[in-house]
Amino acid sequence: MTARVICWRVLIVALYVFLLAPLAVVLIVSFDTRPYLSFPPASFSFHSYDAMFHNVAFRRAGLTSLLLGAAVSALSLGLGTAAAYALDRGSFRGKSALQWLFLSPMLVPHIVLAVGLMMTLQPIGLLDSFSGLLLSHIGITLPYTTRIVSSGLTGLDRSCEEAARIHGASPWQTFIRVIMPGLWRSLVAAALIAFLFSFDEAVIALFIAGNKATTLPLAIFQYIQFRTDPQVAALSVVVVILTMIPVVLIERSISLRRAIG
Question: 49 with 108: CB under 8 angstroms?
């Protein structure tokens, strides 16, 4: 093993330690028995986890985030698939401009999007509502679902579609029976990404959500404004686990990186 290889491996290990160290600290602190955040813990118990699961505000916000993520995942996937198919298979004037339009939310900072969404939703009465959050999260996830599904469409063999057309299949039958079976990896990956982006989104929630519609990241932010105890660390551990499990399962079953392209 050469010195160069050793240096690269040491660098990679150091980067992993740097990235994972905060998570390890949060995990350890979540078992502390003191009513404030401090490291290292004085003693260990599951009291913070028990209190966190009995926290009504956290339960309501968690349910809202789960329902919102599921709705955003389904709607963003449907719209993104339709947009990707039109952009990949269609030929029309303004196609390039439309492609840039779909990608534009990826290029704009979320704080700028949040201010624009707040000013747009306020006159029509959608601030602090589930519908307003739903529209906002669809807007920020649609570029990703469109991009992932487009990547999947590009990798499909078009000769199968042509063969289906020759044998009398309609465009809809071709899409359902030929394209969809070859696109399922990308569809699952796109739905997963949309759900995770919606579930973890905090910046836009600060401007759009409120007392009536509170997501879990916003509930955490509101909680730490007035107190800092291990409940926050316990909830953070649970959120990290909930977001990591789907990614690991999808990566092991269908290869998320290959689906994204």
Answer: no
> Whole-model pTM?
0.83
Residue 261 belongs to a domain:
no
The separation between the first and the last C-alpha atoms of the chain, rounded to the nearest angstrom, is 33
pLDDT in tens, 160-179: 767 777 777 777 777 777 77
- What residues does 32 pair with on adjacent strands? 44
Distances (CA, A) of 161 to 40, 158, 166, 226: 61, 5, 9, 59
Q: What is the number of domains present in the chain?
A: 1
Any idea what the CATH number is for the domain that residue 150 is in?
Answer: 1.10.3720.10
Q: Burial of 22 by CB count in 10 Å (0-12 exposed, 13-18 middle, 19+ buried)? A: exposed
